[in-house]
Amino acid sequence: MTASSEAAPGTPAASPFVQLGGESGVRALVDRFYDLMDLEPAYNGLRALHPTTLDGSRDKLHWFLCGWLGGPDLYQQRFGHPRLRARHLPYTIGIAERDQWMACMIQAMDERGLEAALAQRLAEAFFGTADWMRNR
Questions:
Q1: CA angle (88 as vertex; 59, 45 as ends), nearest 5
Q2: pTM score, whole prediction
Q3: Does the structure show a pLDDT above 70 at 48?
Q4: Does any domain span residue 35?
Q5: Using CA atoms, how far apart are residues 42 and 60, in angstroms rounded to an integer?
Q6: 12 within some domain
Q7: What is the 8-class DSSP label of residue 89?
Q8: Distance between CA atoms of 38 and 46, rounded to whole angstroms?
Q9: Which residues, in sequence order, are CB contacts of 47 under 8 Å at separation 6+?
Q10: DSSP state of 71
Q11: What are the residues whose beta carbons fall under 8 Å from the beta carbon of 79, sequence distance 6 or more?
């Protein structure tokens, strides 16, 4: 991840994983993200790229984000290297899909009450990854 945490000089910075509250905090963010995707018409295009039930998607994003945010590599323990771009190539991802993903995640972070500086760092890091996923 490219989002870094700020700390006093000489003091180890808490990872975003820790700042979010560990696995339960990451899970709460992921669950809100997918709840919003299901509920908000603005995210219909993004929702259409996912399976009918979102349970597997929720788990995979939770496992991935735990490691990406500086916690345990739960995704890699189960599936090996994430190969994000390769795994998403079967799906048409353009600017509209990237922007819906970002808007949904920003809304989820906002509704979860993330500290503003952390939310901004995460949004910047998420955008870099989301933009890299574009394949059209």
A1: 85
A2: 0.89
A3: yes
A4: yes
A5: 23
A6: no
A7: T
A8: 9
A9: 37, 38
A10: S
A11: none
